[in-house]
């Protein structure tokens, strides 16, 4: 049982180190642009403004 607990603690420490490293890398703006693909789908990078359509006639 001691060996199993030691392995679990080691896995938790490695997981924490990887979590901190990933959070640090995501704070770098140039790295974030290449890793986060959702900004391409949402159109955040595009600088041209599309005309907005009004759906409710007043």
From TrEMBL:
The protein's name in its UniProt record: NADPH-dependent 7-cyano-7-deazaguanine reductase QueF-like protein
UniProt cross-references to InterPro entries, sorted A to Z: DUF5359
Pfam families tied to this protein: DUF5359
């Amino acid at each position: 049982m001691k060996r199993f607990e030691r392995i679990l603690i080691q896995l938790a420490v490695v997981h924490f180190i990887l979590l901190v490293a990933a959070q640090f890398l995501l704070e770098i703006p140039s790295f974030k642009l290449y890793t986060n693909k959702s900004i391409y789908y949402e159109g955040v990078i595009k600088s041209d403004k599309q005309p907005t359509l009004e759906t409710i006639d007043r």
